[in-house]
Specification:
The complex is a heterodimer of chains A (237) and B (174). Chain A has 237 residues and is of the alpha/beta class. Chain A has a single domain, classed as Rossmann fold. Chain A has seven helices and ten strands. Chain A is globular, with a radius of gyration of 18 Å. By secondary structure, chain B is mainly α. Chain B folds into two domains: 82 residues, Orthogonal Bundle (Arc Repressor Mutant, subunit A), CATH 1.10.10; 78 residues. Chain B has a two-stranded antiparallel sheet with strand order 1-2. The longest helix of chain B has 26 residues. The chains are: A alpha/beta (237), B mainly alpha (174). The interface between A and B is medium-sized, with 20 and 22 residues.
Chain lengths: 237, 174
C-alpha cells in the first residue's frame, strides 16, 4: 500500500487504515479505519475494553500498530523512529488523560510550561506563556501550587492548559472528565471545547459518557477492535 | 405540566394581572409551548370559581386586563399540597424503543441496526441540547440538563440491550 495518501480529501488531518494492534496474544484493534478532519472534535465511544484507548494511542504515535497505517497531515507516522514520533508528539500533539498526569514535584505553572520547555523555549518565556492559560481557564491564583494542593477539577484544568499551551494541531483527550463530578466535568468540557474552537485545534476525545460525547461534533463507536460510524437517520415513529 | 397549579404558584409571589402571569409562565415553563391568553383567563376564572384565587376590583383604564388576581388561603393550601407531592416516577416499561427491539428480534430483523440508529438519534439530540446549554442561560441549561440525563439513561439501556441481544432473541423466539 502506498505510503502517501493522495486520494484523501484535503481536510483530513489524521487517518488510520486497517490498524491492527495486539497486547501479547490478545487483539485490541482488528483492522480499525478512521479519518478525522482538521478542526473537528471527534468523540470515540465504546464499552470498556473495546479498544478505544488503544486506537487513540495508535493515532497519537504512542503505540505502533502491528499492521496497518497511520497518517498525520498526509505523512505516514507508524513507520517513524521512536525519536521522530516523540518529536511529533511534542511539536504537534497535546494530551489530557483521566488522572495522574501532573508532575507532583513541579508547581502548576511549571507543569503547564513543560511542553514549551521540552520544545526548547527559555524558562522565563515558557512560564510567561503558561501563566496566560491560568486566567483563560479560570484557575488564576493557583500558579504556584503543587498538584497535591489542587482539587480534582483544578488539576484537570492545569492538565488541559498543559495539553493546549504549545498550540498543538491535535489534542488527544482520554476520558478527561472520568474522575470528576458532573458539574466539574462539564466545566472542563466547556473550557476544552471553547479553547479548541478558538484555536482551531482538532480534538480526539475518548469517552464512554454520552453527555461528554455530546460536546463533540461527531462520534464513532469502537466495538471489538473495529470502528463503526453512527449515522443519524430520521426517526420512524 | 399543570397550568392551574403553576399559575397558583406564580400568584403566591404577589397578586398579578393575567398578562404578567402569561409572561412569566412563558419565560420559565412555556419555552416550546407558550400559554394562549384565552387559556390564562379561562384558568383564572376556574380557579376563582373554586375559591383558590380572588379577583380584585376592576381597575381604571382601557385595556381588557384590568383585574389583579390574588391567591386565597385555600389556594395556598392546594399549591402546598401539590408542591410537596413527588411526581409519579414513570417506569417506561412499555416504550416504543422496547417494542421495536422485541419485534425486530421476533421477526428476525436486525435489532442491532435499529439500536445503532436510535443511539445516533439520541446523540444528535444530546448535541443540540449541549449547544443550547452552552449559550449561558441558566434556565435553559437546567431544562437541557434534565433532558440530557434522561437521554443518557436511554443510551445506557440501549448499550445494555445491545450487549444482551443474543439471549434476548432466544427469550422472545422460544
Amino acid at each position: 500500500m502506498a505510503s502517501t495518501v493522495d486520494s484523501r480529501s484535503s481536510d483530513v488531518l489524521i487517518e488510520a487504515r486497517d490498524v491492527v494492534f495486539e497486547f501479547g496474544e490478545t487483539p485490541a484493534l482488528r483492522g480499525a479505519n478512521l479519518s478525522i478532519r482538521e478542526g473537528e472534535i471527534l468523540a470515540v465511544m465504546g464499552p470498556s475494553g473495546s479498544g478505544k484507548s488503544t486506537l487513540l494511542h495508535c493515532l497519537a504515535g504512542i503505540l505502533v500498530p502491528k499492521h496497518g497505517e497511520v497518517y498525520f497531515s498526509g505523512r505516514r507516522i507508524d513507520t517513524l523512529s521512536d525519536a521522530e514520533r516523540s518529536a511529533l508528539r511534542r511539536d504537534s500533539f497535546g494530551f489530557v488523560f483521566q488522572f495522574g498526569q501532573l508532575v507532583p514535584e513541579l508547581t502548576a505553572e511549571e507543569n503547564v510550561a513543560l511542553p514549551l520547555l521540552l520544545g526548547g523555549l527559555r524558562r522565563n518565556d515558557a512560564l510567561a506563556r503558561a501563566r496566560e492559560w491560568f486566567e483563560r481557564l479560570g484557575i488564576d491564583g493557583l500558579e504556584r501550587r503543587r498538584s497535591g494542593e489542587l482539587s480534582g477539577g483544578q488539576a484537570q484544568r492545569v492538565a488541559l492548559a498543559r495539553g493546549l499551551v504549545a498550540h498543538p494541531k491535535v489534542l488527544f483527550a482520554d476520558e478527561p472528565t472520568g474522575a470528576l463530578d458532573s458539574l466539574t466535568g462539564e466545566l472542563v468540557m466547556e473550557l476544552l471545547v471553547t479553547a479548541a474552537h478558538h484555536d482551531g485545534t482538532t480534538v480526539v476525545l475518548v469517552t464512554h459518557e454520552p453527555r461528554v460525547a455530546a460536546y463533540a461534533g461527531r462520534e464513532v463507536v469502537v466495538r471489538d477492535g473495529l470502528v463503526g460510524s453512527l449515522s443519524a437517520k430520521p426517526l420512524v415513529p | 405540566m399543570s397550568v392551574p397549579l403553576t399559575l397558583l404558584g406564580l400568584l403566591e409571589r404577589e397578586p398579578s394581572h393575567g398578562y404578567d402571569l402569561k409572561r412569566d409562565y412563558d419565560s420559565y415553563f412555556g419555552r416550546t409551548k407558550p400559554l394562549p391568553f384565552g387559556q390564562v383567563y379561562a384558568t383564572l376564572a376556574r380557579l376563582s370559581r373554586d375559591g383558590l384565587v380572588a379577583p380584585g376590583e376592576v381597575e381604571a383604564g382601557d385595556g381588557p386586563d384590568r383585574k389583579r388576581y390574588a391567591i386565597t388561603t385555600e389556594g395556598k393550601q392546594e399549591f402546598d399540597t401539590w408542591l410537596s407531592e413527588p411526581v409519579e416516577p414513570e417506569p417506561h416499561l412499555q416504550t416504543v424503543l422496547f417494542a421495536k427491539v422485541v419485534l425486530a428480534l421476533m421477526l428476525g430483523r436486525s435489532a442491532e441496526q435499529y439500536l445503532d440508529t436510535q443511539r445516533a438519534a439520541h446523540l444528535q439530540r444530546m448535541r443540540q441540547l449541549t449547544e443550547l446549554k452552552r449559550q449561558d442561560n441558566l434556565i435553559d441549561a437546567l431544562l437541557a440538563d434534565h433532558a440530557l440525563f434522561h437521554l443518557e439513561a436511554d443510551l445506557r439501556w440501549i448499550d445494555m440491550t445491545a450487549a444482551r441481544l443474543p439471549s434476548l432473541a432466544a427469550a422472545v423466539t422460544s
